[in-house]
Design goal:
The protein has 11 helices and 14 strands. The protein is of the alpha/beta class. The radius of gyration is 21 Å and the shape is globular. It has helices spanning about 45-55, 90-95, 110-120, 185-195, 205-210, 210-225, 245-270, 280-285, 295-300, 305-315, 325-330, and strands spanning about 10-15, 20-25, 35-40, 65-70, 75, 80, 90, 100-105, 125-130, 135-145, 145-155, 165-170, 275, 315-320.
């Protein structure tokens, strides 16, 4: 392929995770993203092979400009890699050797965060309404295999940062200690800590409000209630055990713990502009109408003084349901 005047307004967008790669083409004029694909990374030996496969799948796309959002991190030599062995490694030099011009590369959750906050509200699932007038900062939280936490600041002046209107503050917020509000919450966390093998310090939020957390919560509640835990229960099939006596309680506790964690994160970051929840766990729960919104909001909207209570009550809460949200965030960064 060669870059021609016909594709001068096109950029390939790639969201590269450890499990899937999502690819699309951004049309700079009009801002649309087309030719969307989601492929397992295991189908390709390398990023270069995935890009070659995309080119073969869409032979009419000839642009060589690319922007990347990824869960990988760069080493001192500029090689991007994942924490787990066997995952892709790639660099700007690799892409250049293949004829690509790398316009931008960033953390995938940072790109998803900008994409979430900039989405039309009509395209989001609204869990709670509010004006968000108490702050220009929003919180994006992603309970999935882990727990992503980021703040997005709305900029008054276009051009304040490269995103044009939003600035992302990435955090290690998923590693905050997990709060508890009741005696039963404390017992549940203690049992989960034993299952995780964590003794001191106590569990972090990522251990609790995540895919693995949902599994260990199910197992912990089995112990609390004196029930046997099915040998078949795994992280990817907890929601298939609806007839088990602790199933409903697991969903209740999960929603409550998420409410407490979001409450802390909003208070720490003064992020009353809006809460945007994204990630595989919340997607599965809301798609099957299993997320307990009332329990979540009951703990999220707990303020100790009137001014804080008013701000929390006026903070909108949304669920992001677009699987290509990181690509939309990339559009704001190139």
């Amino acid at each position: 392929m060669s870059d021609t005047g016909n594709d001068a307004g096109q950029v390939i967008l790639a969201d590269i995770g450890g499990t899937h790669i999502r690819i699309g083409v951004s049309q700079v004029e009009g801002g649309s993203i087309s030719s969307l694909e989601k492929w397992p990374v295991s189908d390709f030996p390398s990023l270069q092979d995935a890009l070659s496969g995309y080119s073969a799948h869409y032979p009419d796309i000839s642009t060589r400009k690319i922007a990347i959002a990824t869960a990988a991190w760069p080493d001192e030599n500029g090689v991007w890699g994942f924490a787990h062995e066997g995952r892709w490694h790639f660099s700007k030099q690799d892409l250049s050797a293949q004829g690509f011009e790398l316009l931008h590369i960033c953390n995938d959750f940072g790109a998803s965060s900008i994409g979430a906050v900039s989405m039309p509200k009509s395209e989001l699932l609204c869990l709670a309404s509010g004006s968000g007038a108490a702050s220009k900062t929003s919180l994006v939280m992603g309970p999935g295999t882990g727990l992503g936490v980021a703040y997005v600041d709305r900029c008054d002046d276009a051009g304040v940062d490269k995103s044009g209107h939003y600035a992302v503050r990435e955090t290690f917020g998923g590693h905050m200690m997990c709060p508890a509000a009741t005696y039963d919450h404390v017992i549940c966390l203690q049992l989960m800590a034993r299952l995780w093998g964590e003794k001191n310090p106590p569990l972090i939020a990522e251990h609790v409000v995540s895919g693995p957390g949902l599994l260990y919560m199910f197992k912990a509640l089995c112990q609390m209630g004196g029930y046997s835990c099915p040998d078949s229960v795994r992280m990817d099939n907890v929601l298939g055990h609806k007839t088990h006596p602790v199933f409903d309680l697991t969903l209740k506790y999960f929603s409550e713990f998420l409410g407490m964690v979001v409450n802390q994160a909003v208070l720490f970051g003064h992020a009353y502009g809006g809460v945007y929840i994204d990630g595989g766990v919340i997607h599965h729960l809301t798609e099957h109408d299993l997320f307990k919104t009332d329990e979540f909001l009951g703990y999220f909207r707990k303020g100790a003084v009137p001014v804080v209570q008013t701000a929390l009550d006026d903070t909108p809460v949304y669920v992001v349901q677009d699987p290509f949200i990181a690509l939309k965030g990339l559009q704001h960064l190139i």
